[in-house]
Amino acid sequence: MAKKTEFFYTEEKDLHFVRPLEIIREHPEIRSYMGRNRNTFWVTFILVTLQLGIMYLVHNLAWYWVLIVAYLAGAFLVHALFVMVHECSHNLIFQKKQNNTLLGIFANMAMFFPSSVSFQRYHLKHHAHQGVHEYDADLPSEWEARLVNNSTLGKALWLLLYPVIQTLRVPRMREIKPFDGWVALNIIAVVGVDVAAWIFLGPMAFVYLFASMFFSVGLHPLGARWVQEHYMTSDDIQETHSYYGPLNTIAFNVGHHNEHHDFPSVPWNNLPKVRQAGAKWYNSIPYHTSWTKLWLKFLFDRNVSIYHRMLRKKPEKKTVKA
Description:
Radius of gyration: 20 Å
Structural class: mainly alpha
């Protein structure tokens, strides 16, 4: 199978700036779905409590049992906490931005790898400049695509190491401060939990947190979420795909990705209502119904590579001569 050697490219305007206007013109009730969901605080609290509670329960088990529990339970909890961090990044819980940031850090404390504050900044740029290489940290770097391309082993390692890969994209980003007091607080809080787990409960507690994190984004059907959102895995040239399957129930509707990009001020609990209102648009475009099938397709289909992403250039500012 010949390797793809470049990304897809479009000069079209981002559809997520166009389609919402059409939808809300016909369905103004969508405005009532926008706002904040205070109950997300309690969901986050419960998820953190469950993850740290399981960590305590497994700290005396053999390493293989720890990995099994991390795969079958911890990965789902950490993935759900990712969704809570995502909600915080859009300020969908509290009125004040700093309170959302603090809740994101709290959620991140049970996720092993400090990332919530940085994610908040990069993710908002992703919405504003989707497909623009210098601003969209969700896009793979050229070296990633060239190194991994369509190799099954390469794609497996790429998914497994996804948190590390995303960190390596930071140097290419523009207009974002990579380190400040908030980032420092995030690192201290998360690393503090990791170190405390090792000191007070032992290495298996640390391994549980570590494995839960990497399973939640990597060699696990949940890892298909990162493929589902913006990779083009079929013949359609479509930048964003949604997932409408049973795992949305425990992933807090994060699969409704077209709906989220169209209406980022709608919290997770109302995204299915957006789909229902905009059924004419969302049901007429390709979407996924199984993360597991997509995960296997991404890994083993040599027709799918890291290059299967849509890019666009940021319009250059025109200079006006005096």
